[in-house]
Amino acid sequence: MKIAVVGHNFVVRENQKQLDELVSIDLSLDLVLITAKWWNENTRKTYLERKDGAKYPIYSLPSFFTGHNTLAFYIRGLANLLSAFKPDVIEVYEEPWSLFLLQVILIKKIFRLKTKIVCYSAQNIKKKFPFPFNVIERYNFKNVDAIHICSDGIKTVLTEKGYRGLIKKIPLGIDLSKFEFNPKKPTSKLVIGCVGRIVEAKGVFD
Asked: Less packed terminus of the chain by CB within 10 Å, N or C?
């Protein structure tokens, strides 16, 4: 099977590890990664981080409005890569309302690619997007073959917004070589841990 993975977040090496695992599990898998040249990750400008000896090719493309999830799209190169590779599946690691996803859908239609398109969503709060993103989201809903999510609450949001296609939950992963379960005896002191970015958008300051 040939899979093309498209996602701006893969500029970070840590995010590429899930693809490393995928190709190591299925040696017959033919995978290519398409990402941005750079992105704002964790509040800093991050250029593509590569691993020596990667088992799949990585292409970094220039984009307009780089660093803005809502407005960004690739300037050139995406159509040529997808039409030449002819993937069986295009995994677009972007939200349903994104221009990145719309771009992939239009390329499929224009070049008549016989491929399935899957996108990702982590939106667990129902938001009403302004024009044209509300229209883009509805159009993308009708033109993807499936959406994978990381928690059950996201499925509710997608269905309330009108998506009627296939939804599969794939929980977020953890690198067991760095983290392991270490049970501790209960104490009288309550300790709360936060796994994630310490930023206002995550609600940690509420």
From this structure: C
Q: Which two tokens stand for residue 67?
A: 């660093």
Q: Are 63 and 35 in contact (CB under 8 A)?
A: no
Cα–Cα distance, 35 to 18 (Å, whole number): 15
Ranges of beta strands (E only) in 72-205 are 73-74, 89-92, 116-121, 146-149, 166-169
CB 184 within 8 A of CB 157: no
Kindly state the helix (H) or strand (E) to which residue 102 belongs, with its residue range: helix 99-110
Task: Label residues 107-118 b or e (16+ Cβ within 10 Å = b).
Answer: bbeeeebebebb
Exposure string of 173-194, with b = 16+ CB inside 10 Å and e = fewer, is: eeeeeeeeeeeeeeeeeeeeee
Q: Which two tokens stand for residue 5?
A: 């993975």
Which pairing describes strands 30-36 and 2-6: parallel, antiparallel, or unpaired?
parallel
What does the pLDDT profile of the chain (206 residues) look like in tens digits?
999 999 999 999 989 999 998 999 988 899 999 999 999 877 789 999 987 778 899 999 999 999 888 899 999 999 999 999 999 999 999 999 999 999 999 999 999 999 999 999 999 989 889 999 999 999 999 999 999 999 989 999 999 999 999 999 998 887 777 777 777 777 777 777 777 777 766 666 76
Tracing tokens 């033109």 back to the chain, one arrives at 143
Q: How far is CA 98 from the centre of its chain?
A: 11
